[in-house]
Amino acid sequence: MKISKICCIGAGYVGGPTMAVIAQKCPHIQVTVVDINQARIDGWNDENLENLPVYEPGLDAIVAEARGRNLFFSTDVNKAIKEAEMIFISVNTPTKTYGEGRGQAADLKWIELCARQIAAAAESDKIVVEKSTLPVRTAEAVKDILDNTGHGNKFQILSNPEFLAEGTAVEDLLAPDRVLVGGEMSPEGREAMQALVDIYAHWVPRERILTTNVWSSELSKLTANAFLAQRVSSINSISELCERTEADVSEVGRAIGADSRIGPKFLQASVGFGGSCFQKDILNLVYICRRFGLIEVADYWEQVIKMNDHQKARFAKNIISHLYNTVSGKKIAMLGWAFKKDTNDTRESAAIYVADHLLRENAKLCIYDPKVSKEQILNDLNYLNTRTPEENEAMVEIVTDPYQACKDSHAIAVLTEWDEFKDYNWDIIYSSMLQPAQLFDGRNFLDHDKLQEIGFRTFTIGKIIPPVKPYKEVLNA
Ligand code: UDX
Ligand code: ADP
């Protein structure tokens, strides 16, 4: 089966970059990305590539090459479904915020709506590809809807989970460690899998394209993210121990990572992992295990989340204790809001929770992030519902100049490892701050020796923390 037209429903962080790369590598295939969000589609169609709704290094060049040739962005979902032989579902599957499974299970509302829309619009047989992260056995539900609500057309459901990481999405898509295609083990299922394998084979070596049954594919995605998040929580747990001893978590990470059985990646201690996938996928795994009565398995994975929450909270508490146990009315500069560098995505970013903790203590925050908008930062805080939007606006200032963020502050908290932070003129920043100038590096990546030479009191994850000076001593100094 040769595919000439693809449709992708959902023009987000996954759908947009993935389809741009498929279009670039397969110029003979027409790729149409559709979304119900008009503003998003307008962003993807914007002449000015700086306005693309997703920031990813290298993405603008790929979009520029393929857009208008064989890559199209549109809100006409039905037309794209009708025309395509293969339809990717790449809509959001956030954690449920209501009802049964609230706070844990994935909300499959949008997936179901997509399935119903495909069934209603399709006028011929289709291959439907699940790209969004989904709980195991979702394909079964999608197939059920397609088979029972359509006009007699045949549907093959494939699972093709995305393993790209934000910030390196283009690299990951161009040279993936593996591509996973799961499908039904029937002749029709194998034919559909082959059609998708043939698309990836235009640029991915065949031995890196793995085919499995559909359930293994769905579960592999959750498991991969759970294992990666577990490594971060594991090193973060050790970071707390390092702070009490004279061990240094970077040295411990380097030493254990040199063991080829462990490997060096994902051993960077931090203020806590964020992103749209890790927490959501683990919660999903935990929910599924509980539903099957696998209590020990569920508890085991849940601990990864608990450790992460602990890491975020103790970073905020550490700031408060070093500011003499009160941050009330004090200006604290926050550098970075995105959940990692090189992305404008803020979903589940540790910065949100650290900020909320400090705001509960009546701190005044001044936030700077090179890629995140003011509107997004306020949305993230408002979404927590801890205080009214008006209160958030009053307590939080968002600026476009990092020097202004730090000026007159009592402390700086570094929440994202943006490269540009290393190149700032820290002498100027130091002299513009209130003394003693304190800096809390939640990413363990600045040059602390240099900062201390300038005069900063620096605190970082996983290195011994100087004792808090008694308040009296500070007053007398
Ligand atoms: C992740 C998976 O890596 C990717 O394969 C999957 O498709 C989606 O989920 P992503 O969330 O985009 O990707 O970013 P990732 O690089 O995995 O980082 C996740 C979080 O962990 C970030 O907040 C990052 O700062 C943090 N992290 C990562 C650490 O704190 N330490 C590390 O050593 C690595
Ligand atoms: P991800 O990180 O998984 O790509 P995003 O939230 O960035 O998630 O993107 C998902 C996109 O899917 C959003 O732009 C949303 O508007 C779109 N979407 C959700 N439901 C539908 C639907 N039924 N039809 C078309 N687009 C949809």
Spatially, the strands of the biggest sheet line up as: 3-2-1-4-5-6
CATH C-level label of the largest domain: Alpha Beta
Reported by name, the CATH topology of the largest domain is Rossmann fold
Q: What is the gyration radius calculated from CA atoms?
A: 24 Å
Which ligands does the model contain, each kind named once? uridine-5'-diphosphate-xylopyranose, adenosine-5'-diphosphate
The secondary structure category is: alpha/beta
Low-confidence stretches: none
- The CATH superfamily name of the largest domain is NAD(P)-binding Rossmann-like Domain
Number of spatially distinct domains = 3
Fraction of residues in helices?
A: 40-55%
Level-2 CATH architecture of the largest domain: 3-Layer(aba) Sandwich
Query: β content, as a range?
Result: 5-15%
Number of helices: 19
Alpha-carbon distance between the two ends: 79 Å
Q: What can be said about the biggest beta sheet?
A: 6 strands, parallel
Overall pLDDT metric:
94
Shape, principal axes of CA atoms: globular
What is the number of E strands?
14
List the defining traits of the structure above.
477 residues; alpha/beta; Rossmann fold; 3 domains; 6-stranded parallel sheet; 19 helices; 14 strands; 45% helix; globular; binds uridine-5'-diphosphate-xylopyranose
